[in-house]
Write a structure and sequence with these properties.
This protein is mainly α. It contains two helices and no strands.
Length: about 90
C-alpha cells in the first residue's frame, strides 16, 4: 500500500481534489433541488427531485467521510515516520 502511495501520490491527490469539486457542485445543486421542491405541485416531479436529492446527499456524505479519513490518516503517517526516525538514531 505504501509503495502504491509513493508511486501514484500525485494522481491520487488530483483524484481527491476532483471528487471534492464534484461534491461541492452537487451540494450547490442539492440546495437548488430543495428550493425547487417548495414550488412544485406534481407528485411525480416531487418524487424524482427527492430521489435526486437523496443520491446527491449520499455522494456528499461519502466525500465527507473520505475527507475526514484522510485528515486522520495524514497525522498517523507523520507520527509513524517520526517514531521510526527516532528509533533509528
Amino acid at each position: 500500500m505504501r509503495n502504491f502511495l509513493k508511486k501514484y501520490w500525485i494522481l491520487i491527490l488530483i483524484a481527491v481534489i476532483a471528487v471534492n469539486f464534484l461534491g461541492f457542485y452537487l451540494l450547490k445543486e442539492s440546495v437548488g433541488i430543495s428550493d425547487a421542491l417548495e414550488h412544485v405541485d406534481s407528485e411525480r416531479v416531487i418524487q424524482k427531485l427527492k430521489q435526486k436529492d437523496f443520491f446527491y446527499t449520499l455522494f456528499i456524505d461519502a466525500v465527507l467521510i473520505l475527507d475526514f479519513s484522510l485528515i486522520l490518516f495524514s497525522p498517523y503517517l507523520v507520527i509513524r515516520s517520526l517514531i521510526k526516525n527516532k528509533n533509528r538514531k
